[in-house]
Specification:
Two copies of one chain form a homodimer. Chain A is of the alpha/beta class. Chain A contains twelve helices and twelve strands. In chain A, the strands form three sheets. Chain A has a six-stranded parallel β-sheet, sandwiched between helices. The radius of gyration of chain A is 25 Å and the shape is elongated. The interface between A and B is large, with 51 and 51 residues. The structure holds a DNA duplex (16 and 16 nucleotides).
Chain lengths: 332, 332
DNA sequence: CTGTTAGCGCTTTCAC
DNA sequence: GTGAAAGCGCTAACAG
């Protein structure tokens, strides 16, 4: 692999000059510059980011962290974030950590400059520890965190409000018996993180309670693996008080539920209404078009990268919030 | 950020001993080891992979390269490959290069140890250049390449055969007027790469020709962006000789086509049959269940990582091939 | 069993 | 405008 030394020798300059040319960091005689550039092209020299990182202690490497790549929500965001990172000269590595705690350790050894955390699995303490190690952190938060380090930037979408409106829509349609089926994500660290109140869940509960729903009027279920959905839905179908609306924690789960219902001959939405959440791209492509909550995901990638870069460059920044919006489809 | 020096000082040993402990690369007195490990834990020291990489010229970093993360095919593979890489102590960065040539340049500066290329966009020359720079290359190839460097390992799925069988199935069902709609991927570099014969396309053509289909009996279309699908399908619907079977280049495209057809009131498969390709997870989840070709994608990730590691470790390896298989669903 | 040391490829200060 | 040199954190050969 050709190094800067060879370039310097062949161009009859010192290694410093090669640096100046590459980084445009110092005056270089036009003729010299040309000569160096020619040699670089001839030799196919490419600066070694690893050495540069070691010297500058900036890896130009950002990590996108999530825990369920099987939910199209994450790849969709990841693709956009990758693009935005690249455009700013950063490498983005996408990390689906799953439920495996050891993986983050490996990641930390690579000394990423920043992490975009789109996962509810970390406790405030863990996130703060990252930040205190000097890693820029942008957190897309679906739940409450207590005592986050002030250097952590949050992207907040008003999910509580979105779910509230969705529930109000369903109540308006006459639904009175609900089930809430969500991924198990937010439960795992419940103890560790104090009160990890998931906004989707709490809005669901609050609206049911507000209407005056009894214990009998709703069911809460959570799935870890998709193949559990059949069992859960089956259980619901056999409930004494018939569930008329299933509120899924995200679009991916909603689709699975609908598919299973249809395979059992249950019509959606005539027999049971099903709603999603997130408005992933597929929500409007696959049939039935999902009634879901639009998170305006297209704002996410630019916002995340902009925030990350501002933190890295020690520029001031603010937390970013935006609204979510109910989108009526054919499923409820 | 705490470095090895501090650990050494606090544990009253030389920096070398700290290395020995971490890497298990030399005898260390049990007591000393214990002392060092204690200090490491206390200080929360994490080895700096960047410095290590510079020294060993092994980045322990693998890149997954694709060009269309919007097709669920790629995230699905990416998730599995990430896991397999992690389990072997490698960081995997996922790179959706899109159609942007400059992005690969950035990636190369990071001196990845290997690349898993799941993209048809590179020419043999480009791939060979990567390999000659000492990057381990595993290529998931959908088309013919000429004169690939022998150090490039290929994962080949018998796609030609799969598409052939799919066509034979359709011909058996009485279809005689076809359209082939594929992503534009394989066309872009047509000139540059000599004869980039895409197996899906050639099998489609060959089977039609074999049956004796005239020029009128099939149409070839390719899409770059999903929103072109409406126009293309519209065009097909207005053809003089009515198309009865649409053969999509992949499942994602098939779903879009079906969705558009249904929105126009065209029934699938009664009015028009549609087939997919790849058997992504969603092919059997969303309705109608796709008639598609199963590529046994679950074999991919382990195979790719195993091959990559063998190349990196200079162990012998072989190209890997396996069959594809028609899976009959409800769409054709 | 432990320590000393050279050097990976680069940036950057300072001297010329 | 250009060059010499120090040093980022680590590994590994070698000496003791």
């Amino acid at each position: 692999m050709v190094s800067r030394k060879e370039v310097a020798e062949k161009a009859n300059v010192s290694q410093a000059v090669v640096s100046y040319v590459i980084n445009n960091s110092n005056y270089v005689n036009a003729k010299t510059r040309e000569r160096v550039e020619k040699v670089i092209a001839e030799l196919g020299y490419r600066p070694n980011m690893i050495a540069r990182s070691l010297k500058t202690s900036q890896s130009h490497h950002i990590a996108f962290v999530c825990n369920d790549f099987n939910n199209p929500f994450f790849p969709q965001i990841a693709a956009d974030v990758t693009k935005a990172a690249f455009e700013n000269g950063y490498l983005l590595s996408i990390n689906d950590l799953g439920y495996d705690d050891t993986r983050i350790e490996l990641l930390l050894q690579y000394k990423v400059d920043g992490m975009f955390i789109a996962s509810d699995l970390f406790t405030s303490e863990e996130i703060n520890a990252f930040a205190q190690q000097g890693i820029a952190i942008v957190l897309f938060s679906n739940r409450k965190y207590h005592n986050l380090d002030p250097s952590v930037a949050c992207i907040k979408i008003d999910i509580y409000d979105g779910m509230s409106r969705l529930m109000i829509y369903l109540l308006g349609k006459g639904h009175r018996n609900f089930a809430f089926i969500s991924s198990a994500r937010f439960e795992k660290r419940e103890e560790a993180s104090g009160a990890p109140e998931n906004y989707r869940y709490s809005a669901f509960k609050d609206r049911v309670a507000e209407w005056g729903g009894s214990e009998e009027s709703f069911t809460i279920e959570s799935v870890v693996a998709f193949d559990q959905i059949a069992d859960i839905v089956n259980k619901l179908l056999h409930k004494r008080t018939k569930v008329t609306a299933i509120v899924a924690g995200n679009d991916a789960i909603a689709f699975m539920i609908i598919e299973y219902l249809q395979s059992r001959g249950v019509r959606v939405p005539q027999d049971v209404a099903v709603t999603g959440f997130d408005a992933i791209r597929y929500a409007s492509i696959f049939s039935p078009k999902l009634t879901t909550v639009d998170l305006h995901l297209d704002w996410m990638s630019q916002t995340a990268i902009t925030l990350l870069l501002r933190i890295i460059r020690k520029q001031p920044y603010k937390h970013v919030c935006w609204d979510s919006e109910v989108r009526i489809g054919d499923s409820a």
